[in-house]
């Protein structure tokens, strides 16, 4: 199967881009158009490493492909720098939604950390308001272009700071105004979810859903803390749950696997894994298994019945799209249209929406794939 220059491919006569998709793990500051970065940087007299959009895109891709989450995260210094004004935040959010819609996404959740956007005097309330304004503008623009999309905010706290309870309260305040869930992000190793137990206790008392970055730069203890301390309904990445699987034998396509207690719990409780194939390679999250996509435990987890979903993590840094991620998986693991539909149905079922709205989303996906 050939993947074209835009990351698209044809599977069973259908363009993957044309298929309805759900995006659960997508960072706002990781999905800024390079051209927009250059324009916004010029407005605030910020120096950028490249003044051509294509060359800047290359710069992000090169810097992000380090095999280290810590190094990968350094590239966000540039994107967050141009997201410190109301106008910048609104524009980035609007274009973010437009890009999702162009990629065939019909429901998305965008995660971002308001505390990182206060450098030019805006308040937490003002930055959330600016992003929500941009999301709604993007939804309206998509509708005018004949594309239906809905996007909710995942209000995120940085795990290496001490503002998580404050950010949790902010998320709950915005529950009826665009916020659908909460997350913690940033350097995972050394900053377990247990350090933010007060925030998670508050969210639980408010019945507000959480997804927690875990099992990316840290292993099983991080996942365990996400589930116990964070009451996570989904695992942000969670790929290192495969460390709790012991492959006893392989005979052709038959694999005998012994489950650890944690892996069995995640699989049997159908706790969704927000897997991001390209990003997982770039950050070294799958280094224990290899450094190519075929080494990624994605297929093992899928075949064993885990609730796997496919995500981009950071479109700018990984120079990717949800269409491209799906095309790469098809190319690597020979997946069929039914497999891609299963990934989208998993994501729809995991969305932080009321049951009735999840059921509607599932119907839209099933209808779209059937057509």
Compact overview of the structure:
The chain is of the alpha/beta class and 371 residues long. It contains 16 helices and twelve strands. The strands form four sheets. Strands 3-4-5-6 form a four-stranded parallel beta sheet, with helices on both faces. Strands 7-8-11-12 form a four-stranded parallel beta sheet. A two-stranded antiparallel ribbon has the order 1-2.
Question: What would you note in describing this structure?
Answer:
This protein has about 375 residues and is of the alpha/beta class. The chain has a single domain, classed as TIM Barrel, CATH 3.20.20.140. It is about 45% helix and about 15% strand. It has 16 helices and 12 strands. The chain has helices at about 35-45, 55-65, 70-75, 75-80, 85-100, 125-145, 165-175, 195-205, 220-230, 260-270, 275-280, 300-305, 315-320, 320-335, 335-350, 355-370; strands at about 10, 15, 20-25, 105-110, 150-160, 180-185, 210-215, 235, 245-250, 255-260, 275, 310. The strands form 4 sheets. A 4-stranded parallel β-sheet has the order 3-4-5-6, sandwiched between helices. InterPro entries: A_deaminase_dom (IPR001365), Ado/ade_deaminase (IPR006330), Metal_Hydrolase (IPR032466).
